[in-house]
Design goal:
The chain is an alpha/beta fold. The chain is built from ten helices and ten strands. 39% of the residues lie in helices and 12% in strands. The radius of gyration is 20 Å and the shape is elongated.
């Protein structure tokens, strides 16, 4: 029995791959046997992302997660990765946090996302997407039918970008989780998402903490919640409620505080 357990443990560990496991001597990537590719902080840059994208485009096996957090990837790498998502139908989670994508990079990624077959979860926090980036992403989400969760903390999105994204999501029937914490969208963003709630069926988790929403904006959000088609788990900034300074719509209803 002990030998069996050791074998199973080794098999499970082999499915989580590092850069050394997949990078070939010629700079290409071989992803066979990997379920999770952990490249956090490896600084593969655009050239590495382009090579990885070539492998992702033809990967039809078990790769489910790619962590490219903090890898100095810009617009060229983002464009290649977006194109790979059009043919890759296996990937579930893609982390691109803290890469200098900028608006140009997010627009490049969005070109592929419009017709993508994956991923289901996408992290773009601290990528300097700005309004132009999120507007392009919103346009892609009008025709994207796979993305279920989008994380864009601290991307410099203002009320203009928030309004465009909320408007785009009116025709999206897939996105369930939207994390916009730390973007300076203010009450304009609150009003936009309050107007979306009576329209959107899938959106169930919306994080607007630290987005500059005032008491007036929170009142508008509560009005939207009352008319919501789903039962959204909403996180908003609140004054004088403890060190975390947040409250959720579920807490206010006396429900268990978890989506």
């Amino acid at each position: 029995m002990r030998h069996t357990l050791v074998f199973i443990s080794a098999l499970a560990a082999a499915k989580r791959c590092s850069l050394a496991d997949v990078l070939q001597s010629d700079g290409s990537y071989k992803l066979d046997g990997c379920e999770e590719l952990q490249l956090f902080g490896e600084s593969i840059g655009d050239s590495g992302a382009i090579s990885l994208a070539k492998a992702l485009a033809t990967n039809v096996e078990g790769l489910l997660l790619v962590d490219l957090w903090h890898n100095n990837i810009g617009a060229p790498g983002a464009r290649a990765l977006g194109a790979a998502l059009v043919t890759n139908s296996r990937l579930q989670r893609l982390y691109l946090n803290e890469n200098p994508l900028g608006a140009e990079g997010v627009r490049a990624l969005a070109e592929g996302l419009a017709g993508a077959k994956s991923p289901h979860h996408l992290w773009l926090s601290r990528t300097d997407a700005g309004d132009e980036g999120v507007i392009a992403l919103g346009e892609a989400l009008k025709s994207n039918h796979v993305l279920e969760a989008l994380d864009m903390w601290e991307c410099g999105i203002t009320g203009r970008g928030a309004r465009a994204l909320a408007t785009a999501l009116r025709t999206n029937n897939v996105l369930r989780t939207l994390e916009l914490r730390g973007n300076p969208m203010g009450d304009a963003g609150a009003e936009a998402f309050a107007a979306l709630m009576p329209v959107s069926v899938p959106l169930g988790v919306l994080d607007l903490l630290n987005t500059g929403v005032t008491s007036a904006g929170r009142a508008v959000l509560r009005t939207g919640l009352a008319k919501a088609r789903a039962n959204p788990y909403l996180v908003v900034f609140e004054d004088d409620i403890g060190p975390h300074q947040q409250r959720t719509s579920w807490e206010e209803k006396g429900l268990a505080d978890a989506p």
